[in-house]
């Protein structure tokens, strides 16, 4: 069958050969490359947001506190609610936005970090309900892929697992 396809007339045969070559090149990409790129891609927006929440080492910025006190609200079942303990929430969200992306990029506790960021994505969705299709849905999809498929071979988790494998 393959030989019959390749013997097609010139334009059709060339197209089939080009597609076959492209598929071959794509198959040659190691699965670990998209996995590490996925981890980096989803980590970036959280990291950048976390940087805005601190004015120094573990010093939550007044702007972040103001946002959680005055601007951000939780939208739940058609009602809005103020954030409880806005200073603590600003601090903890900033801390999560800085620590979890680092773990994700390193591939250390990867599924834990992805789960934490997925939880943060849910809270962000409740805070900014109009952002679901632009930001929150792609973030959730990337984080779910990491949860399901793991960090890949280029990760600290994989190095640790290899170190503790039983040797024969």
Structure description:
There is one protein chain. This protein has 168 residues and is mainly α. The chain contains eight helices and four strands, in the order H-H-H-E-E-H-E-E-H-H-H-H. It has helices at residues 2-6, 10-28, 32-51, 62-71, 86-106, 110-127, 132-149, 156-163, and strands at 54-56, 59-60, 73-76, 79-82. The strands form two sheets. It has a two-stranded antiparallel ribbon. The longest helix has 21 residues, at 86-106. 23% of the residues are buried. The model has no long low-confidence stretch (mean pLDDT 92).
Give the DSSP E fraction (strand runs of 2 or more residues).
5-15%
Which class best fits the helix and strand makeup?
Answer: mainly alpha
State the share of residues found in helices, binned by percent: over 70%
Low-confidence stretches: none
**Biggest β-sheet: strands ordered side by side in the sheet:** 1-2
The largest β sheet comes out as: 2 strands, antiparallel
How many β-strands, per DSSP? 4
**Oligomerization category of the chains in this entry:** single chain
State the shape: extended
Estimate the mean pLDDT confidence.
92
Rg (C-alpha, Å): 22 Å
Number of helices: 8
